[in-house]
TrEMBL record:
InterPro entries on file: AAA+_ATPase, ABC_transporter-like_ATP-bd, ABC_transporter-like_CS, ABC_transpr_MalK/UgpC-like, Mo/tungstate-bd_C_term_dom, NA-bd_OB-fold, P-loop_NTPase, Transp-assoc_OB_typ2
Name the UniProt record assigns to this protein: ABC transporter ATP-binding protein
Major site of localization recorded for this protein: membrane
Species in which this protein is naturally found: Rhizobium wuzhouense
Keyword vocabulary terms for this entry: ATP-binding, Cell inner membrane, Cell membrane, Membrane, Nucleotide-binding, Translocase, Transport
Record GO terms (molecular function): ATP binding
Domain ABC transporter: 4-234
UniProt entry tagged with the keyword Nucleotide-binding: yes
Pfam families attached to this UniProt entry: ABC_tran, TOBE_2
Amino acid sequence: MAQIRIENVRKEFGSFTAVQSSSFTIEDGEFFMLLGPSGCGKTTTLRMMAGLELPTSGEIYIDGEEVGMKPASQRDIAFVFQMFALYPHMNVRRNISYPLLSQGVPKTEVRTRVQEVARILKIQDILDKPVGGLSGGDRQRVALGRAIVRRPKAFFMDEPLGALDAEFREHMAEELRALHDRMGATTVYVTHDQLEAMQMGDKIVVMNHGVVEQFGLPQQIYDWPATLFVANFIGSPSMNFLEFDGMVGIGSDHVTLDGHRFAIPVLRQGAEGRLTLGVRPEHIRFSDAAPYRGRVIATEYLGTTQIVTLKTANGDIKARISSAVSVKAGETVGLEFDSRTLTVFAGERGHALV
Ligand code: ATP
């Protein structure tokens, strides 16, 4: 098990900066997600932690030891690739044994450890089968087996479920998480899928254009996004953004949109000019008496809830409400927002005022 800390780590490829100066800590035993859109630098960050890429500057610590310039082989970690590279001409037992045999571990111990891994992954009955004929899921388990048999300090996984179809992907995600909970080894996992990150992660780093936008617990990131980018990237449908011109000061407890006052959590920062009020779809209520109005453009039935798209004076928004509420396109409804969860964003990068 291991604590991993990166400090001001930066990576340049020629004149292109793939990762801007980044710092965060992964605590011992955490299941840690590196999340962001394609090209944001998450794979490069993972590869630097694993020792497959050297940082241009900054430090990487594993259990307090600076390892930034050490190769992967000296970091006692295991990397699980998306394309599970197995040796096709060997059977399952041999594939899992291989890393130990090549390290010179005695054969009797190899046998015991392979049995133990097979039990954890529930693959005892396929140990003597050739990997060529295995299903995708079993191949994935064997690849994991090969990674965990070495008992490394930490696991690094780059979109390990990316090649699987949706249903199976969900199943394997649950298995991976359960496996982590049984073994307790620090795991760093790259994904561009915000739902996967929210469901599996103890903590999440959200990256964009090589910059760490936010780092925290899934619930913190969902409830208190630090930037407009995070607010937009996390959640489906994503947060609504109502733009308005105005001024808020330290201690402000409301904003005024289209002449209507909305209570917000008390601000400790101020801003003026073009501001954005962020409202999650599930924090909007319909209320006949509410003076702020929206015209229903469309409804989308989702079983117990429905997504209602509305036109307001500050732009189109989506509300997630109970399907028991009857709404029709064309009608005008009063809107209330849950004041505890409203976020005001300001400035060029759209940082949240807190
Ligand atoms: P994806 O999910 O698409 O892999 P990512 O967030 O993991 O995206 P990276 O693979 O880290 O992103 O790449 C970040 C940026 O760095 C991209 O623009 C990529 O083209 C660039 N990049 C990555 N590796 C190299 C390299 N060896 N040489 C030059 N540019 C690179």
